[in-house]
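Sequence in, structure out. Go.
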Amino acid sequence: MVDFTLTDEQKALRELAHDFAVKEIRPVAWEFDRDSTWPADILRKAWEVGLMNTHVPEEYGGPGASYLDGCIIEEELSWGCSGITTSLSANGLAAAPLA
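Output:
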């Protein structure tokens, strides 16, 4: 039988991403939409806490997380703002072949 229960590590990752969305994304998302500006500070903070380019293997300096881990992160961040989350996730598209 297939078990879809998240591991403790995945639950912690989900909580980290959700807290980031609550504190860093949701309060200011409307400003980026209104002003049509790039969320550089949010991207920098997301990188610092480990929420970007999670699929990059450890041997290339990344965390080597699974694609499921990435989906968990994106789902929670998208709750804050799907547009900003697209900016965060699209940043790693060029690195996908490394994984």
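Check: The domain at 8-98 is CATH 1.10.540.10 (Butyryl-Coa Dehydrogenase, subunit A; domain 1). The helical segments are 8-25, 29-35, 40-48, 67-80, 82-90.
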